Amino acid sequence: MSDKKVRQDVIDALDWDPRVDSANVGVAVDDGVAVLTGHVADYAQKLAAASIARGVKGVTAIADEIEVRFPGSPIHSDEDIASRAANVLKWDIVLPDDVLKVKVSKGWVVLTGVVDWDYQRRSAESDVRNLAGVKGVTNAITLKPRATPADIARRISDALKREAEIDAARVQVSVVDGKARLEGQVHTWFERDVLERAAWSAPGVRDVEDHVKIG
User: Which helix or strand (DSSP H or E) is residue 100 part of?
Assistant: First the structure.
């Protein structure tokens, strides 16, 4: 598939999806790598644009250079954003009390702390990324170690075998110091996402290195 065709498919996908106002989003494709430029009104649209482009057939990687701008909206101070972020984290019933910290610099939120499960990490990031004034989120929350490397690798392999979308025989898993390394090949970005979720769901996984290829 030519880069020209892939580029047009990405543009069409962005125009069609109601989550993104694509009027100010530019798309370029070079050897399957989609470069997104321009600006959107909030961080949620930035994330959605990258997700939409990644799902287009022929896209092998994403370079997300979209800026977040807030036209016509009041300026939100870092202190205000940090205060609201701390409040929404406190209200989230899946998160333990008083374990997460929030730092904000020029609208960019950094989350730190330690939780038991990856779904808690994801929930915390989801809580703050749609707050007014947020231009981006760095999720530096870590997970508590809960199992041996051999047990973690076994759990991941078992999870992959249960996933109908993935040929587990094409994927190799190794774990060192709580870091799961994924290697091999899958057919689509969707399969790769399923693979990552399976790895993160194993107790004791604190980080995932995804070296799986699409093809």
Answer: strand 100-105
Which amino acid, one-letter code, is at 145?
Answer: P
Q: Is the pTM of this model over 0.85?
A: no
Helix boundaries (H) for 135-176: 149-162
Of 178, 208, 185, nearest in space to 196 by CA: 208
CB-based contacts of 4, cutoff 8 Å, min separation 6: 29
Q: What is the Cα Rg of the chain in Å?
A: 19
Write the CB contacts of 49 (distance below 8 Å, at least 6 apart in sequence): 14, 20, 22, 25, 36, 40, 64, 66
C-alpha 5: how far from chain center = 26
Measuring CA to CA, how many Å separate 41 from each of 23, 129, 132? 11, 13, 10
Return the half-sphere exposure (C-beta side, CA atoms, 13 A cut-off) of residue 152: 26
1 exposed, middle or buried (CB, 10 Å; 0-12, 13-18, 19+)? exposed
Span 51-100, pLDDT tens digits: 999 999 889 889 988 988 876 656 788 888 999 999 999 999 999 888 89
Cα torsion 27, 197, 41, 78 to 10°: value is: -130
On whether the CB atoms of residues 39 and 65 are closer than 8 A, the answer is no
Report how far Cα 203 is from the mean position of its chain's Cα atoms: 19
Q: Give phi and psi for 67, each to the nearest 5.
A: -95, 155
CB atoms within 10 A of CB 4: 9
